Here is the input.
Amino acid sequence: MQHLMKKKGNPMKLKRRFAAAGGALALVAAGASVALIGGASSSEAAGSPSSAYGLEATGLIPVQATPTVTSTTGKLVKDSLVSLPSNPLLSGGLVDAQAQNGAAEADVTNLDVGGSLLGQLTGPLSTLTTQLKPACTALNSVSLTQVNNALSGLTGNLSSALNQVTGSTGIDLSAVGGLNLNNLLPAQLGGLCDALSGKVGLVHVGAITTRCTGKTGSVQVTGLRLLGLPSSIGTAPNSSVSIPGVLTVTLNKQTQNANGTFTVDGLYVDILGQQQLVVTSATCGNVRSASKPKPGPKSQAPVPHPIHTKAPVTG
Here is the structure.
């Protein structure tokens, strides 16, 4: 997408930045707040507008949907965001959003969802890092090949394999933060340990594009990694993959809304049940002109014309 706004014939780039404010993230606009291309006021259109946004988060660290655009008249509207400063949730990322009548699109490239989010956990999960340290230390002391070999010869779970390989009897993943992580593969546990140490992000997105046209939608994604591991999740509507007890990721989440619009969320992420994130969302609707009819011409009395005669004059 082009990130330009026309103003008096001269294109102007619009850049936005995230800024940490308290425990949340706030949007700071550089220059104009919204890039609009064409269009009349919303009072001149009726129906359900199309819209799009790049990122939205709820939970421990809320992020308002941004950049967000809405085409209330059906005309093309664009906006973009760059340069995410250091924060506990997101890093990197170039975000674009655009919408027009019956079509919308959002794009994000090079986005990381940071492992430092784990330091913000609350409740029973707040001691996750401390409780995982023994398991991470044990995992670092052996190769994943050894652990995989141990698993293949056991009817037990990951923790029993770790205990056998390391000679320890004190590694119980079911006690970690109240979560049962025994179903994790060794590489997944290694990825979680790397995320806790800040070596990798919980989720990495190389590039994702989400589009809708009318009542259909599509998602294209490359470079998707979960806990540092490549993900093979498909792009069919509502495709989902989970890392037990840690991450649930849904790709191409499609929703038919009550107002007649159609929404496609490119990537929906749930982290430990405490943090939710949407990466790219497009909603398609239609608006129609509601302009008032033009009044007819005012009626006027006919202009009198003099009548000339040749009647004789008497007197």
About this structure: The two ends are 94 Å apart (CA to CA). The longest strand covers residues 90-100. DSSP finds four helices and 20 strands in the chain. The first helix runs from residue 128 to 140.
